[in-house]
Design a protein that fits this description.
The chain has 198 residues and is mostly helical. 87% of the residues lie in helices and 0% in strands.
């Protein structure tokens, strides 16, 4: 791929960015390719050494704020023709309830996933608090000279501490899925806004 082809493809794929951001990023990659060519690489080698357009676009989409894309997308509104306006009104009347219902269901499922994660973390905190409380009560029984009760509470404290550690490891593992889901949702919204902008 030549420098021109690379930069044209990058411009096309990042068309939803604000013009100043787009120009800045294209200038950065143009200079990077030129620097590599000055170091003795051919044009194709310099371009291939940067990475694929897909990787670069993914990286840029991860770092650009969603609010920036929304503002840029809102600026690019054009006036609608009469037929488009009529179709939009009819489509809104027919589709809006279905879209709202689907969005509500998706939001409820997403909230339920996070509720389970929060519940698991609350259990970890409760077990850790139970371990600390068990140690305090065991110390109290020792002061009262009740070694059997102190030993029982010490065992309960150790059990709670062990369960807290085990659940902590499980919670870390379980939390990764909703975090990745959230990241993919944000990247999906950004990609949708980028497509609308082009």
């Amino acid at each position: 791929m030549t420098k021109t082809e690379f930069l044209d493809e990058l411009r096309r794929r990042l068309a939803g960015l604000p013009q100043s951001d787009l120009d800045e990023r294209l200038l950065y990659f143009r200079e990077m390719i030129d620097d590599r060519m000055e170091d003795g690489l051919t044009e194709e080698e310099a371009v291939s050494g940067i990475g694929s357009v897909d990787e670069i676009v993914d990286h840029i989409m991860e770092e650009i704020p969603l609010s920036t894309l929304v503002k840029e997308n809102a600026k690019r509104k054009r006036s609608l023709k009469t037929g488009e306006t009529v179709l939009m009104v009819m489509g809104t009347v027919l589709c809006l309830p279905l879209v709202l219902a689907a969005a509500t269901v998706c939001l409820a499922v997403y909230a339920a996933i996070w509720a389970v994660v929060i519940g698991l973390w609350s259990t970890v905190v409760g077990m850790a608090a139970g371990a600390v409380a068990g140690l305090v009560v065991a110390a109290g029984f020792l002061v009262k000279r009740e070694p059997v009760n102190a030993l029982f509470m010490l065992g309960a404290a150790i059990l709670c501490a062990g369960l807290a550690i085990l659940l902590f490891c499980a919670c870390v593992w379980v939390t990764k899925a909703p975090v990745q889901l959230t990241k993919k949702m944000v990247l999906g919204m950004k990609a949708l806004l980028m497509r609308k902008g082009s």
